[in-house]
């Protein structure tokens, strides 16, 4: 028995020794050699689908493409409201307007008179692409890797498998080339449909390319052979984009990766035989001019961004407000970017390991899942969120921001019960809007992470009015400086005026039954749906929930079969047009497949929208917006639910964090203190050895009686 | 035996065609090609033209099973089903809707799946058999009783609990191992230990109970009494005779799952960040990527058939009375 115990103890100690030999912190998932490296550690929960700037449209993809690709413009890191500044461009372009005869018009020409807007963009010389084999040339100046056959590519799995790399200067033609790529039918760019309505000749180019693609399905489409009337190269560093009519919001698209440059060499390189079979495509191996390039691309495990050695250089912004200065966000003003040498993104599908690793210091920042919310955040008596003591002791900081998004419950305006523009229907919708107490919803289901919405425009965008002046008078009322939901009696009164006194049809006496379509799923779905039913119970109105999957829900919406439904919208760009267009009549989902899911169509609202979308920000535009807000609040095609609020955490070794919900290229501003991180990790992750000894002891204690019993039995039988 | 294996492999062809047809039918009952296009193109600014273009580019514009516009054999071959299925019998899986080569993905993910599944299988088998034999050795004693109670308790706990508890205590509270992650080669050892430990412990309850039942059945047979009568020690009886004769039902359960070890474990891989095949299928279902779903179902069916054939072969090895004809 003693011998077995000794053996088990030895095994235990050997295991300890092995682990101790591996690392100072046994639970460190990273190599020890990187302990003091200037590396930022983050995670992704869903692998990106596309990294091609013509195709990528998800925020989880923008986390990578935003650091690699450089469109001509970007959002200022610190300034609010969001402000566009040049990135590769010399300046933010101002459009020039032309009439039908092609003659220039004044800058303040009426939108009706403008046939074409021309954006001339001049990029800065000297910007170079990341090192990439597509640019590699031999001594004679020929491309090394542009005439490969499948055999030569067979053993290449990563870009790093190619020995030689090269670079070249960014030119205006690369931007024009990318705009043409939006029309390439083989790429299925998600914005082709939208952009073909605006960029001159893009639709025609798409049609031509589709015909050629169908006729020669195996041949590569060389986009340089196909002209695009709406995008022209003026000189080596200048290009023009021609937009149909006036479309002031186009400037925001110039800050998205869709309009970033793509070198033709990259397409030529990846089009070679055997490349796609080895996952060597522009969709997975991007080529950009940004501060980082994708040096390791294993979407099943981890993705690594490494500092681009050819980066053109940029400095940390020097203009921020007093709050930025107080928060230490100007400490690095004027210093060269980027600060971090490498960013490692690990695949972390589950929230529990992600959260635990953050607390151990192995991730530099984290969101807060509902499971760990109470552990991280508590609310003061005034309702302000603050970190719990345990978080503060660790030096963790809370970062909050109201997203440029809205969640709403839509009424299908084509529905005979809740839809239509009649006064009774309007009152019915207003009554329901009051009954749905989203203040309570935010408190119960979102842990306070949201702001009750007063209209379609979220905070931070032009047109949003804060405080009592911006309340929705049909749902809320002002009590001094406080905004309070209207009493339920008001809702009941409106319901009676709508023809449903006490929730029953005044003519037939039948109870009012409404149907709510949802694709919600998840552990708290039932309680959320029960809450919704309870809201209408207050009016004695029955709510029937029709749960369905994503596909069927979309189908119902397209056919207009839903009555009430839940939906949300994230801003593409910080302009009220990007929210009001969700209620613009010609965008009705049923008639046109557009984004107006409620199928709302108010001629006066439509007229104001058409006016507002072409206006510059200013008092006059605000006046029009106010008028539009009044119409949609009165008509109530949506229950304006809430603007979500994001809560994030960061360790105190991470600097220069300011939520910027429009910019996706903020990695270059991050600075970390690797030595502090290493010290904290060592402090927080000291291995606890007694459980191993206890386990060994426990096993001995379990085995010992068995061995005794066995020996006794052997002796007995003998 | 060769003729037997060949015959079984030929039988597998109609089974695989049937499985493929069933997968195809079930998938397209739930998802139309339009749904797939919408999911791939995203929720914003998706026009009907964009959907049509996506379908053409990905080959989803063809009829599902019968092309009435075509003539002759093309009515069957120029269809989505045929074009997506025929190549699979040569293990050419094509590309997923995200453009990545499925064959490459499977090859890359098999290693990590095996790195977890194989040690779990081997260690689990050894631990469970040993524990079962110990219970049988101490049958009808308090040790056996408490052993069974322990097994029932272990069986009653959800697999997810073992994972969360293992991560909480071993990785988070005691800081002994990384909570999740993966690396190739020797560096990967520290990532594998915890999932293997958790999976082995999670399987002890059901495995040991199952083997205990088998051994108890064997231990009452005449040859065991004869062995004892010869004066063999109980340990010798158990390990030399009972274990050997109990191998057939053990093999039934063990060998059939051997090929399926490649397919990995969904929950374990997901929680421990193992880039294996386990989560590949469920990710594909969520993304409505039919190409990956059918490839994984096909592979799973094929490996299961291989497992059954291996089981038959192993029968003939361990039991001379069994002959494959």
The number of helices of chain A is 23
Query: Which secondary-structure class do the elements of chain A indicate?
Result: alpha+beta
Helix content of chain B: over 70%
The separation of the N and C termini of chain B measures 7 Å
Give the ordered list of helices and strands of chain B: HHHHHHHHHHHHHHH
Q: What's the β-strand tally of chain B?
A: 0
The outline of chain A comes out as globular
Strand percentage of chain B: under 5%
Mean pLDDT of chain B: 86
Strand content of chain A: 15-25%
Largest interface: A-B, 65 and 66 residues
Shape of chain B: globular
Oligomerization status of the protein chains = heterodimer
Kindly state the percentage of residues in helix of chain A. 25-40%
Q: How far apart are the termini of chain A?
A: 20 Å
Low-confidence stretches of chain A: none
Structural class of chain B: mainly alpha
**Rg of chain A to the nearest angstrom?**
30 Å
Largest sheet of chain B: none
The tally of beta strands of chain A, per DSSP, is 27
Low-confidence stretches of chain B: none
Which terms summarize this structure?
heterodimer; A: 718 residues; alpha+beta; 8-stranded mixed beta sheet; 32% helix; B: 325 residues; mainly alpha; 15 helices; globular
What is the fold's blueprint, element by element?
The complex is a heterodimer of chains A (718) and B (325).
Chain A: H1 2-22, E1 39-44, H2 59-68, E2 73-75, E3 84-86, E4 96-98, E5 104-105, E6 116-122, H3 150-153, H4 172-181, H5 192-196, H6 202-215, E7 231-235, E8 238-244, H7 250-253, H8 264-270, E9 292-298, E10 302-307, E11 314-315, H9 322-326, E12 336-337, E13 342-347, H10 351-360, E14 365-367, H11 373-376, E15 377-379, E16 385-387, H12 389-393, E17 397-402, E18 405-411, H13 423-435, H14 438-445, E19 450-452, E20 476-479, E21 482-485, H15 488-497, E22 513-518, H16 525-537, E23 542-547, H17 550-559, E24 564-570, H18 577-580, H19 589-592, H20 603-612, H21 619-635, E25 638-650, E26 654-655, E27 671-672, H22 674-684, H23 690-717
Parallel strand pairs in A: 1-13, 22-23, 22-24
Antiparallel strand pairs in A: 2-3, 4-5, 4-6, 6-8, 7-8, 9-10, 10-13, 11-12, 14-25, 15-16, 17-25, 18-24, 18-25, 19-25, 20-21, 26-27
Chain B: H1 2-30, H2 33-41, H3 48-57, H4 74-77, H5 80-85, H6 102-137, H7 142-156, H8 159-173, H9 189-219, H10 222-229, H11 234-245, H12 247-257, H13 266-272, H14 278-286, H15 290-318
Helix pairs in contact in B: 1-15, 2-3, 6-7, 6-9, 7-9, 8-9, 10-11, 12-15, 13-14, 14-15
